[in-house]
């Protein structure tokens, strides 16, 4: 609607966005649009190749397609609304839209934490138990691990965190000091003492970030011990190629997440926090398919075969 002020306050939220830096909004619109397009193309390519190329029907590519599908949902839950608000004067989001965005954002963010742990376990089995890899990483186990990541790990956290946050009384406050509906920003709208909510959020953040990081480091500790026993340089390169992509994605995701969510809010300005969240939300999902495609010979070969078929069909 043209006049949001004519509606009851509980039906919408006003997003601050990047209104304090209007000179960069046009630039942000262009950059975010490019990254969003690249994310859609890159992750969709990985999903299609993993589904239709028989050479890619392996456990790691199954988890990689799950990660790509997750990235598509993660970035789509917030970027379209963000782009709309960058080009119009009334930066608003409906209450229902904010609720849906909050649930999806938390669901997919928590799912990614657990899914990266599952992928670390897959790499551990591939390096430390190569002869039993296909026996251990049976399709049933892969589906079970993926279901745990999406269900208990992601959806469970989202339902608890979002429901607790949305039940806080706001007393008509609707000005969100952010460009997305996020738990910390919504807690600040509450007209009551929120110390208990802030402690609960901090504990949940520690569990979702530090516990998966610990499990991943433990997996790579066993991998490092197994690799150190290898005297062949070729085997070293193979191990590094097997784990390098996952390690890079883990470093980007958990490193940026720790900076944003574990540090006290007073340690960096609101503007810096927004740009870090923007990088975490928009740039990281774009880099993941590039990292995995360039460092995964099977995936790179599948992309080349797809391009070759397209070229041949065009010539024909």
Automatic annotation (TrEMBL):
<keyword id="KW-0716">Sensory transduction</keyword>
<dbReference type="InterPro" id="IPR000725">
    <property type="entry name" value="Olfact_rcpt"/>
</dbReference>
<dbReference type="GO" id="GO:0004984">
    <property type="term" value="F:olfactory receptor activity"/>
</dbReference>
<feature type="transmembrane region" description="Helical">
    <location>
        <begin position="60"/>
        <end position="82"/>
    </location>
</feature>
<feature type="transmembrane region" description="Helical">
    <location>
        <begin position="240"/>
        <end position="263"/>
    </location>
</feature>
<feature type="transmembrane region" description="Helical">
    <location>
        <begin position="202"/>
        <end position="228"/>
    </location>
</feature>
<dbReference type="GO" id="GO:0005886">
    <property type="term" value="C:plasma membrane"/>
</dbReference>
<keyword id="KW-0472">Membrane</keyword>
<protein>
    <recommendedName>
        <fullName>G-protein coupled receptors family 1 profile domain-containing protein</fullName>
    </recommendedName>
</protein>
<keyword id="KW-1003">Cell membrane</keyword>
<feature type="transmembrane region" description="Helical">
    <location>
        <begin position="26"/>
        <end position="48"/>
    </location>
</feature>
<keyword id="KW-1133">Transmembrane helix</keyword>
<dbReference type="Pfam" id="PF13853">
    <property type="entry name" value="7tm_4"/>
</dbReference>
<dbReference type="GO" id="GO:0004930">
    <property type="term" value="F:G protein-coupled receptor activity"/>
</dbReference>
<feature type="transmembrane region" description="Helical">
    <location>
        <begin position="275"/>
        <end position="294"/>
    </location>
</feature>
<keyword id="KW-0552">Olfaction</keyword>
<keyword id="KW-0297">G-protein coupled receptor</keyword>
<keyword id="KW-0812">Transmembrane</keyword>
<feature type="transmembrane region" description="Helical">
    <location>
        <begin position="102"/>
        <end position="121"/>
    </location>
</feature>
<dbReference type="GO" id="GO:0050911">
    <property type="term" value="P:detection of chemical stimulus involved in sensory perception of smell"/>
</dbReference>
<dbReference type="InterPro" id="IPR017452">
    <property type="entry name" value="GPCR_Rhodpsn_7TM"/>
</dbReference>
<feature type="transmembrane region" description="Helical">
    <location>
        <begin position="141"/>
        <end position="160"/>
    </location>
</feature>
<feature type="domain" description="G-protein coupled receptors family 1 profile">
    <location>
        <begin position="42"/>
        <end position="292"/>
    </location>
</feature>
<keyword id="KW-0807">Transducer</keyword>
<keyword id="KW-0675">Receptor</keyword>
<dbReference type="InterPro" id="IPR000276">
    <property type="entry name" value="GPCR_Rhodpsn"/>
</dbReference>
């Amino acid at each position: 609607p043209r006049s949001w002020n004519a509606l009851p306050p509980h039906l919408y939220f006003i997003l601050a966005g990047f209104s304090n830096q209007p000179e960069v909004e046009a630039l942000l619109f262009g950059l975010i649009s490019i990254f969003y397009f690249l994310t859609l193309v890159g992750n969709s390519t990985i999903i299609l190749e993993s589904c239709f190329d028989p050479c890619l029907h392996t456990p790691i590519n199954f988890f990689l397609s799950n990660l790509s599908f997750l990235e598509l949902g993660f970035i789509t839950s917030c970027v379209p609304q963000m782009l709309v608000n960058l080009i119009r004067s009334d930066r608003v989001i409906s209450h229902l839209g904010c609720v849906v965005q909050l649930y999806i954002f938390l669901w997919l963010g928590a799912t990614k934490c657990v899914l990266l742990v599952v992928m670390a376990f897959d790499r551990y089995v591939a390096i430390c138990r190569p002869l039993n890899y296909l026996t251990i990483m049976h399709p049933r186990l892969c589906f079970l691990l993926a279901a745990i990541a999406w269900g208990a790990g992601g959806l469970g956290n989202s339902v608890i965190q979002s429901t607790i946050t949305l039940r806080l009384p706001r007393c008509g406050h609707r000005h969100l000091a952010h460009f997305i509906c996020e738990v910390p920003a919504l807690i600040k709208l509450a007209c009551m003492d929120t110390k208990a909510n802030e402690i609960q959020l901090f504990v949940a953040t520690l569990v979702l970030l530090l516990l998966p990081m610990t499990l991943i480091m433990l997996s790579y500790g066993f991998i490092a011990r197994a690799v150190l026993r290898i005297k062949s340089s070729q085997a070293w390169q193979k191990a590094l190629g097997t784990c390098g992509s996952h390690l890079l994605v883990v470093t980007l995701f958990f490193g940026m997440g720790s900076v944003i969510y574990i540090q006290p809010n007073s340690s960096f300005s609101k503007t810096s926090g927004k740009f870090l969240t923007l990088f975490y939300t928009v740039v990281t999902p774009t880099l993941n398919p590039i990292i995995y495609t360039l460092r995964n010979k099977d995936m790179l070969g599948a992309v080349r075969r797809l391009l070759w078929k397209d070229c041949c069909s065009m010539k024909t």
